[in-house]
Specification:
Layout lengths: L3 E5 L3 H11 L4 E6 L21 E2 L1 H10 L5 H7 L3 E4 L4 E5 L2 E2 L9 E4 L2 H13 L4 E5 L1 E7 L4 E7 L5 E5 L2 E4 L7 H7 L7 E4 L4 E8 L9 E4 L10 E8 L3 E8 L9 H9 L5 H7 L8 E3 L4 E4 L11 E3 L5 E2 L7 H17 L8 H24 L12 H17 L3 H11 L11 H9 L13 H10 L9
Parallel strand pairs: 1-2, 1-12, 2-8, 5-15, 12-20
Antiparallel strand pairs: 3-7, 4-7, 5-6, 9-10, 10-11, 13-19, 14-17, 14-18, 15-16, 16-17, 19-21
Length: 470
């Protein structure tokens, strides 16, 4: 008997879910309402694609496991992307000061445009023999509260059709209608948590100057506890000899789309490093804005009733403030959980969908704890009031962050957690507790840890700096 699966959405989460299913069922249909470009190019339904994206180590490893013949890392590097060690190749100002760049290269990050990553995954996944793409919009689930049996779709002209399937995966992103679809089947009470700091993103592409091909990733983060809107910046090297500069600001401190204001915003951060770098770089694009950035967590795994044959993955189950760079990796880990749970079971096996939902929730919860615990402290945030436990944990993490700036051991432990390679409980191990309470091994840095060659590039670009600024 033929086994069919439907995946709603052809973004990263949907493509990877299709990859997870393609060797385990007879037919996978990916539903996508947008017309997809043939190569690396923007698409209408992905406004966040114009902003900086970083693929964490955990996400890359999961994708390589799901698509072992793809060689994603090699393809991205061959196309001009970069692999950057978080511990040695990033210049980062954290809430508690500048992080050191250690001699040890660990926690590699893959940087490129979202367009390139999406195009690479589309080519690999949609080219598989049992995987097909259909341009249509999912409008409802078929079946009952006991079992989902397919989806009702509408094409571009509005004509409706029922598609039957043994398994439906909703990877429809932030705009997912899964809660409403389930309610129509009689499943209600899905708990939702929102932490909305009002973040607005503004991004612009610049030409990378000659000689700066190895310039580090630059991150300037806000301090959530300084009672000011959280303003941040990332300068990310991407293919084509370009820098992608992404600025962000929480409620009351948002960037705008004005090009002149873009530079002023970057120069007005806790440190003007990104602003000084782009002040002399050639802009290659207009400023792109995005406002759909709130943290939203839907606890599908805790639903009292859950139908067989239905799974929700990616941003449809949890969407994060993009500043933390977790979304793509959480999507990859969710698809890996789908492959792992389905690998030894039939699509009709009792309890399979709930097992997948709970397994995928492990990565979701780890990322949610990191993002929501930071954003809830910014002025004007829309969220539940912090509990006593939130206050205690925040004080501990802040101290650990300060210690990590001067301790390789604590720094790598935090990197394990922030890149979703280890569970957050790792930070509560007795040895790390003692190291955190004991304080940093080295004194804080007075400025960004640039090499002499990197300083020369900075000074060659800087049109606004002063000799006193490193």
């Amino acid at each position: 008997m033929s086994r069919r699966a439907i995946v709603v959405g052809a973004s990263v989460a949907g493509l990877l879910a299709a990859a997870a299913l393609s060797d385990l069922v007879d037919e996978v249909t990916v539903l996508e309402r947008d017309v997809l470009p043939d190569g690396p190019a923007p698409r209408k339904g992905l406004p966040q694609g114009r902003h900086a994206h970083i693929l964490l180590t955990s996400g890359l490893n999961a994708i390589e496991a799901l698509l072992p013949g793809l060689g994603l890392r090699q393809r991205v590097l061959a196309a001009g992307g970069r692999e950057i060690s978080l511990t040695s190749g990033a210049v980062m100002l954290g809430p508690q000061g500048w992080f050191r760049r250690w001699r040890h290269h660990s926690h590699p990050l893959l940087t490129c445009s979202r367009d390139l990553l999406d195009a690479t995954l589309r080519e690999a996944v949609l080219g598989r023999p049992r995987t097909g793409l259909r341009h249509a919009r999912a409008i409802a689930l078929l079946g009952s509260a006991d079992r989902v049996t397919g989806v009702r779709i509408a094409d571009a002209q509005g004509a409706e059709e029922d598609l039957r399937a043994d398994l439906v995966v909703d990877a429809g992103g932030r705009g997912s209608r899964a809660v409403q679809w389930l309610a129509a089947l009689g499943i209600t009470g899905i708990r939702e948590a929102v932490v909305d700091s009002g973040v607005v993103y503004a991004s612009r592409v610049y030409r990378m100057p000659e000689g700066a091909e190895g310039f580090p990733l630059v991150l300037v983060q806000p301090d959530p506890m300084d009672a000011m809107p959280g303003r941040a910046a990332a300068l990310v090297p991407i293919e084509g000899g370009r820098w992608l500069a992404s600025l962000s600001g929480t409620r009351g401190g948002e960037p705008t789309g004005d090009p002149a204001a873009f530079l002023r915003f970057a120069l007005g951060l806790r440190h003007p490093l990104v602003g000084r770098l782009i002040s002399g770089a050639e802009p290659l694009s207009d400023v792109a804005l995005s406002r759909s950035t709130r943290n939203v967590r839907r606890y599908f795994e805790s639903a009292v009733t859950w139908p067989e044959g239905f799974v929700v993955l990616g941003d449809a189950t949890a969407a994060f403030n993009p500043v933390y760079g977790q979304g793509m990796s959480v999507a990859a880990l969710g698809a890996q959980a789908l492959r792992r749970e389905l690998g030894g079971s039939d699509t009709a096996a009792p309890g399979l969908a709930r097992r997948v939902q709970r397994a995928a929730a492990e990565a979701v919860e780890a990322a949610w704890s990191l993002s929501s615990s930071q954003d809830r402290w910014f002025p004007g945030v829309l969220a539940d009031r912090p509990t006593l436990a939130d206050h205690v944990l925040t004080r501990y993490v802040r101290r650990m962050t300060r210690v990590a700036a001067g301790s390789y051991r604590v720094s790598t432990a935090m990197c394990d957690v922030t890149t979703l390679q280890k569970d957050g409980s790792r930070l509560l191990r007795p040895s790390l507790l003692l190291a955190t309470l004991g304080g940093p091994v080295l004194p804080p840095l007075a400025g960004p840890p640039l090499t002499e060659a990197e300083r020369a590039i900075l000074h060659g670009l800087d049109r606004v700096g002063s000799p006193s600024r490193p």
